[in-house]
Amino acid sequence: MKPLFSQGPASGYRMLLCAVLAFALMFAEQRLPRMTELRAHLTTIVAPVQWAVSLPSDALSWGSLVLSDQRNLIDENRQLREQLLKLSRRVQRMASLAAENVRLRELLDAAQRDDIPYVTAQLLSLDSDPFTHQMVIDRGRVDGAYRGQPVMDASGLIGQVMSVSAYTSRVLMLADASHAVPVQINRNGLRFIVQGTGSYDHLLVIHVPDTADIREGDLLVTSGLAGRFPEGYPVARVTEVIHDPGEPFAQVSAKPISQPERSRHFLLLFPPPPTEVSQSALEAAILVGGGEAWFDIPSSEAP
After folding, report:
1. CA-to-CA distance for 216 and 253, rounded, in angstroms?
2. Which has more confidence, 263 or 1?
3. pLDDT greater than 90 at residue 109
């Protein structure tokens, strides 16, 4: 096959043409609103290719399960039974706490919290770009997915949907440097913002006053501010708190609860649309790293 940029005067013209096309596409992406719709249609066309690419890994998983010997299956079954017993004990305890919570809310005449509907999704592909943390899942517009929808794995928050096509969705993960989530400390309710760093196992808790009551080991959960992420879902656990004398803010690091580098199955949540967004929540739409934080304004596309 003849290379695109071969030696010779024609290669320079090809290179110039490709550069001009690239700049034209970037300009159109920023200035033309219909480019988002065009990208969604192109993603729909590419969806069968993504499914075909994921078939070998699915076939390999199925083959390894078929060829597993009886001893491995017995050990795995025993581990699953032990895990089931532990989870059953936790569910029994949670049922008691939930009933007590309902009684307390009735005494306070507070509104009841309903379960949030969800659909399951499976990973199709991960972006190979080291500067972005995005993935493609097998749920799209026909499944009710919408831009800004929260995405969870079995452990905690993964991120949110950033673009939707007919059959697939692209998810911006929590680790991406352009992603930020409003959180609160589960221990005392103090509210902060968690920002991605480009690393799967390292997040930053930004704008933490030096006198704030935050400690290593604190669990950070979604605060529900800005109406995008429902309240109370685990996000990260504080791993380091550094107090620098003379500085107004402490340096706080956290580790995500979710495991995006291992998970293949996810949940797409359908939280109820917020009836009113407070001014303080809108003011939380700050600029993070020169770009707009991905938690600012609730999506009007939610079903």
Report:
1. 9
2. 263
3. no
Per the structure block, which two tokens stand in for 22? Answer: 């690239």
The whole-chain average pLDDT of the chain stands at 79
Q: Which residues does residue 119 pair with via DSSP β-bridges, in sequence order?
A: 268
State how far the Cα of 288 lies from the Cα of 54, in Å rounded to an integer: 34
Q: Where are the domains of the chain?
A: 13-66, 69-107, 118-297
Q: Name the amino acid, one letter, at 114.
A: D
Q: Thinking of the domain 118-297, which architecture would CATH place it in?
A: Beta Barrel (2.40)
**Distance of alpha carbon 283 from alpha carbon 301, whole angstroms:** 21
How far from each other are the two terminal CA atoms of the chain, in whole angstroms?
49
Cα 110 to Cα 243: distance, rounded to the nearest angstrom: 39
Residue 37 to residue 164: CA distance in whole angstroms: 9
Alpha-carbon span 205 to 219, nearest angstrom: 12
CA-CA distance, 255 to 238, in Å (whole number)?
A: 6
Please enumerate in sequence order all residues whose Cβ is within 8 A of that of 263, keeping only pairs 6 or more positions apart, or say none.
123, 153, 154, 155, 158
Contact criterion met (CB below 8 Å) for 273 and 298: yes
